[in-house]
Amino acid sequence: ESANAILTRAEQEARNVMQNESNLFRAEALDILDRIRAKREAINNIVRLTPTVAANLSAQNPDVSARGLIGIERGRMVAYDRQNLYSVIVNAVDEPQRLDGENLILDGANFDRFKTQVFLTKENRLIELIEGQPTAMKTDDPAGWLTGPDFETYLRYLYLLSPQNNQILKYERLSNRYSAPSEYNVNGKLEDAIDMTIDADIYVLHQGGKVSKLLRGEEKPFTIRNIPEGALAKATKLYKSSDRGSFYFLDPEGKRVIVTRNDDDSGESLYQKQFVLEGEQVGTLQDLWVDPEETQLFVLDEKRIYSISLQQG
């Protein structure tokens, strides 16, 4: 933090020189700004790279505009746009599969316990992909399914983030349907929540980059130490591959993924690094997934899935 503060002061002084009407020492100031940028990236462990294309969805559909990525197991993923699913095995992409007629897909997740993939649609329908076949699933709630910016699965439960209700709704997956929901959140403030990830606790990402931690519905202290100021301000997605895994934040505007360590139940995570994706073909980043062994990071834009080795940098 002190080193970053020194660099910020040096940067401001160099910019003051640049704004001098006499243009004296302008070339020297430009050189200093370049050196400051390089030093800041070294201090903050920023890795710039041209990512490897793991799968090209546009080979099956040139007009694809992908929105989400679901990891199933190493070498198997499902990407989806507003209506179609794209099954990916290693680097081969199957022909798109229509999920629910003209209905639009809002979000999707893997249900590891039941070896299925689950999708929430705009018409308040929950569609489960069971042995490759889309199956509409009902809930015992007379009001039917609600929608929200994110839902996740854990053990035999489905958790739906509902900021408009300041709540996380917990559904139990039964043999051929889901229970009515119970309210998980006790005292957390979730009105601006945009995404979440689950291990034994639930971590919620808010607009502006705040992260809150809920244990049995109650908010617990949680901080990320040593993170560069504003690094999470534009983050839209939060992912954690396992109970002991690191946190991965997606920042589409910065074309980057920010990585912080697991908190080990201490209420603290430690900033580690950033991966910045470079190259003309990289579009607007949509989603991310990390394999359970944390050897590969996969990042989705509208047309491609990129692979980044987590054993580099």
Question: How would you explain this protein's 3D organization?
Answer:
The chain is mostly beta strands. Helix content is 11%, strand content 42%. The protein has helices at residues 2-18, 26-43, and strands spanning 46-49, 52-56, 68-73, 76-80, 84-89, 92-93, 97-98, 105-111, 116-121, 126-130, 133-137, 150-154, 157-162, 167-172, 182-183, 193-198, 202-206, 211-215, 218-220, 223-225, 237-240, 247-251, 256-260, 268-277, 287-290, 296-300, 304-309. The strands form six sheets. Strands 1, 20, 21, 22, 23 and 24 form a six-stranded mixed beta sheet that branches. Strands 3, 4, 5, 6 and 7 form a five-stranded antiparallel beta sheet that branches. Strand 22 (247-251) and strand 23 (256-260) form a beta hairpin. Helix 1 (2-18) runs antiparallel to helix 2. 35% of the residues are buried. The model has no long low-confidence stretch (mean pLDDT 93).
Topology:
Layout: H1 2-18, H2 26-43, E1 46-49, E2 52-56, E3 68-73, E4 76-80, E5 84-89, E6 92-93, E7 97-98, E8 105-111, E9 116-121, E10 126-130, E11 133-137, E12 150-154, E13 157-162, E14 167-172, E15 182-183, E16 193-198, E17 202-206, E18 211-215, E19 218-220, E20 223-225, E21 237-240, E22 247-251, E23 256-260, E24 268-277, E25 287-290, E26 296-300, E27 304-309
Parallel strand pairs: 1-24, 20-24
Antiparallel strand pairs: 2-27, 3-4, 4-5, 5-6, 5-7, 8-9, 9-10, 10-11, 12-13, 13-14, 14-15, 16-17, 17-18, 18-19, 21-22, 22-23, 23-24, 25-26, 26-27
